[in-house]
Amino acid sequence: MKNKKPPFEITTAMLEEIAEIAELVGRVNASMGLHTNPTLRRTNRIRTIYSSLAIEQNTLSLEQVTAVLNGKRVIAPPKDIEEVKNAYEIYEKLDTLDPFSVDDLLRAHGVMTKGLTKESGCFRSGSVGVVDNQGNIVHFGTLAAYAPQLTMDLLEWVKTSGVPMLIKSCVFHYEFEVIHPFADGNGRIGRLWHTLLLTKWKPVFAWLPVESIIHDQQDEYYAAINQSNYEGESTAFISFMLSAIKEALEEAVQTAAATGSRTADEQRRQRLRQFVQQNGAITNADVRRMLGVSSATANRILTGMVEDGMLQKIRLGKSWGYILVER
């Protein structure tokens, strides 16, 4: 592969998706506040780890993965628990990895497969194949003698090529799986490195669980690999991955909108509670004046606060009012 572009074609549809992805990245950056929301970052990181491991038949549920990473005791195969801990450790070191360094690639593999395989942190010495989630052999890896050089050539191409990083990261992912340089952990490392490359393009990708989309569309994931293998180029796989990346971003935008709506609602309720604390009671007219909403909307807000045990409805002369519920 040295000094030679891996075979693939950039289509008009890909260019359109790249433009849409760039726009979505801007919207996510503007709305999610991932860099200032450690809770959301951790939630997404756990989803990433669960999904990437589940693709490789790890048996732990999302709830169990969360429990393991919270230091709780989980009854499950020790190997599966170790995979979770190892994956979390290396994803937490993502910002220390050079995406073009073979030494860092081997270091990452050493962490990801620590205690799980004899050939941890080194290139494989024997033959290996790619198996899908049905147990079917999708592909036999490159001969072990050629795997190290082909991997280094691939990293060098990604580093020096002028192709957009969105495309290069997908090409790397596919070609890495074709080479299959390790005895175990190739899928996990391939997805980790894809995320690392995307993160070097836009840091927000460090906290977006693209792997969860791949997990949800696992059959399509392997079908794209099979099609690319058949066609001898990664075009089909690139198309699939761009679609998955876009879907992960769209999900993030929707999550941000829902979170923003909940936050705005909580702030609005807090204003109304403060008004009641200062004035003893609040009416529909007070809410309309304070929030600039209709009578129906004001009534919906007050009714919701009553249902949630925050306010109590009482009679105020000829009209209704609301007071705080005594705790």
What can you see in these coordinates?
By secondary structure, this protein is mainly α. The chain folds into two domains: 12-257, Fido-like domain (Fic-like fold, Orthogonal Bundle); 280-324, Arc Repressor Mutant, subunit A (Orthogonal Bundle). The chain has helices spanning 12-31, 38-55, 62-69, 78-91, 102-112, 147-160, 165-179, 186-201, 210-216, 218-231, 235-279, 284-291, 295-307, and strands at 129-131, 137-140, 311-316, 319-324. Strands 1-2 form a two-stranded antiparallel ribbon. Strand 3 (311-316) and strand 4 (319-324) form a beta hairpin. Helix 5 (102-112) packs across helix 8 (186-201), helix 6 (147-160) packs antiparallel against helix 7 (165-179) and helix 10 (218-231) runs antiparallel to helix 11. The mean pLDDT is 89.
Count of distinct strands = 4
CATH architecture of the largest domain: Orthogonal Bundle
Instruction: Compute the number of helices.
Output: 13
Q: In terms of per-residue confidence, which ranges show pLDDT below 50 for 5 or more consecutive residues?
A: none
The CATH superfamily of the largest domain is known as Fido-like domain
Strand content: 5-15%
* CATH class type of the largest domain: Mainly Alpha
Order of helices and strands: HHHHHEEHHHHHHHHEE
Query: Measured on Cα atoms, how large is the radius of gyration?
Result: 25 Å
Sheet with most strands: 2 strands, antiparallel
Report, as a whole number of angstroms, the end-to-end distance: 71 Å
Structural class: mainly alpha
Which fold does the CATH topology of the largest domain refer to?
Fic-like fold
